[in-house]
Amino acid sequence: MNQKQYPQRWTGRWADQQTFDSVYSTIPAAYQCYRDIIKDQKYEDPRSLIRSGFKVYGQVDEDGIIQEIFRRIGIRNHTFIEIGCGYGLENNTRYLLKQGWSGIWIDGNQENINYINGNFLNSIGTRLEAKCCYINKDNVNSVIWPSSVIDDREIDFLSVDIDGNDYHVLSVIDQVNPRVIVVEYNAKFPPPFDWVMPYNSDHIFQGDDHFSASLTAYTRLMKSKKYSLVGCGVGGSNAYFVRDDFVDEETFLAPFTDKFHYEPARYFLIFGFINELPGWNMAGWRAGPERPEPVATD
């Protein structure tokens, strides 16, 4: 490469200095927008999850919301499964792993799994199991169970983010009984629009709006599985469902409906939560053609 280049989010391609600088110039504005949003009266109730959000290794505010949910309902066995884990430097469960939890990371990209196996050496085989598999509704149950690091089907936390067949995969999972489930919804379709991406076992995300399902569809599905929607992330990506035996109006903010908890798509907030200096191990950036340099990850 003749000039200094930087990883570009989403595409995995490379951006020049001008593009990189233009993205970074949006960060103060995006973060201020976040601060303005959470001042809304809707979030003043202490049972609301929004103001608990913060980023450690998640994309926006996931780490704080997940921590707050478990502060309220307690932790049973410190176990998780994340389907669509990436290469481990930014996802919904790395912060849990950092705190001593055990679990399974699953991703369809072999390079991601190779990176995890080569850089999470203190956890692999003892607290962390990394599996390479392109998940669909026919194989998901056999992939997540049995596990070499989890011995109880009642896991604490399940995260599903595969940019496509998420709804269909979630609908058939029956080998584990999570207490908390987070799934990426498609915020383009606000309540009461009930939309699900048609199932396609070979679907590959194209960076467009053809993925997953609306929040209304997820709320309907999860109600049938005896889970309640307790909140969404401020970025309009993640919906948080808690098993009904841990949900009451003293613990979480009712009503537990898609209409009440829906957050619109605010994907620009991602750039307000980049919290390290530019570099390969920077939280919030996806690697390009090469994997990041090895870093102390666990």
UniProtKB/TrEMBL annotation:
GO biological process: methylation
Pfam families the record matches: Methyltransf_21
Alphabetical keyword list: Methyltransferase, Transferase
Gene Ontology molecular function: any one: methyltransferase activity
Domain Methyltransferase FkbM, residue spans: 151-195
Methyltransferase keyword on record: yes
Protein's name according to its UniProt entry: Methyltransferase FkbM domain-containing protein
